[in-house]
Amino acid sequence: MGNSAPNAQPVDSSDPYARLEQTFPVLSEDMAGRIARFGHCETLADGDHVFHRGERGVDFFLVQTGEIEIIDHGDHGEEGIVHRHCARQFTGELDLFNDRKILVSGRAVGPTEVIRVPRADFRRLIVAEPDIGEIIMRAFILRRVALMQHQQGAVTLVGPARSADTVRINAFLTRNGYPHRTIDSSSDPDAAAFLEGFGLGAADLPVVISEEQILRNPSTHDLADALGVAVAIDQQRLHDLIVVGAGPAGLAAAVYAASEGLDTLIIESTAPGGQAGTSSKIENYLGFPTGISGQALAGRAQVQAQKFGARLAVSRAATGLDCSGGHFRLQLEDGTVAEARAVVAATGARYRKLDLPDYARFEGAGIYYAATAMEAQLCANRAVVVVGGGNSAGQAAVYMSRFAAHVHILVRSEGLAATMSSYLIDRIVASNAITLHPFSEVCALSGDTHLEELVWRDRRSGEETRIEAGALFVMIGAQPCSDWLQGCATLDDAGFIVTGDGCSPFETSRPGLFAVGDVRSGSVKRVASGVGEGSVVIQAVHRFIERQKTDAMGCGNN
């Protein structure tokens, strides 16, 4: 990659390291001069570090003379060179837009002069110099993609590939864009020796290993803290807006709020994207004629929000909201409290579960609520069953048909026409790898450590069908994630948030508390409508905050 790692593998056109001019651009002298106005010159000696893996809040560096090499650290402390930045090239990747721990180190090679741009001034640079900002943003995104593809700056996950905890950790790392390599302890012949080298055994699995630490079957929350994915929340800070939920609606609200100058905090329990983030491909979203994966769409929106200054706190589920005072106080599961003038609830909905014996035992171990590359790998060349008749179920079936031996779709009704977009129905009908079973429901599950067989029943005839199955994808109904709002907003009989009580169609029964996306009663359950609601609601948020500030000033003058 430019002056790339000597052990780098051959690349293809989809590899960012094959796109050197975009991934590691050399800026013009004019651009370099404009960047210099935002920072100051520093001289480095050979071997001086400018940042270390694990640090937070590192600065932006533009090389003037000499080189800065970017270092990847292995599990055993070994070093690999990711890239050497030469004159008019710059350091950094997406972690410059947030407070996460950085994944790599950087040090000078020979006498080197750089322009150091402090973090706050870097944000001013991105806004003030849009042409430079566009080049930097593209490079940062490509660099993160490359780190993930080449497993650089990575941790190692070791465990049985089909165990629920291994799947949980793998999904968290993948959806949060954290580079990692996975070793399947149940099939990899080298796994035992690898574990022995760290003094680990089967009882420790799954385990996450990095240069700094060993985490034995960590909870998602503990994993986020240990890897620095989680960021600290200033409990003394009064935010203008807290957006709860980082699905399409929440991310859209954050982008528009932050871009219009509101001090914005996003709270997300797992990873950006919500249900849409687990979709293999969304083909009817405006502006993407060839489709885009839910994770890619969410990743771009997340970067966009952070570019404008929004802060994202991942692995911080909301557990309650105190709306009794002049400001909102949001309680999080770790005991943290975040305060804001206004709140946008965008927590979406979760799929309903089937009422079956052993269902809980197989969740994450054969029963999944997302159909991504990770799940496809787990059940390749085996039959799979998809339960549900909506677009998410259709997208899952079409995607999995590329990997599974066969895909069976079960719906309780007579067909798909009433619930699924016609382009997906046409694709399903045309596929020899997909079979639709109307008036059918799963009635039994079986397996040892993971799902191996299931039975479904025809509701009309009572006939039962038993098959060996690699996975069961459950994508039915919607349960709103609104428990944390009890006492602060009116909910309908199904638990969705009722809106339209105030001066905005998105305001709840409590002024200053808004709801958008799938969690809102009467919303259209589509990505585009969620994005639209999230963008439009900010106008009402502005009006509320302005009224609140005006009222406070009036009280102070009495």
From TrEMBL:
UniProt cross-references to PROSITE patterns, sorted A to Z: CNMP_BINDING_3 (PS50042)
Domain named Cyclic nucleotide-binding: residues: 23-143
UniProt keyword annotations, A-Z: Flavoprotein, Oxidoreductase
Keyword Flavoprotein: yes
Coiled coil: none
Keyword Nuclease: no
Pfam families for the chain: cNMP_binding, Pyr_redox_2
Domain of life, source organism: Bacteria
GO molecular function ontology, one term from the record: oxidoreductase activity
UniProt protein name: Thioredoxin reductase
Species name: Blastomonas natatoria
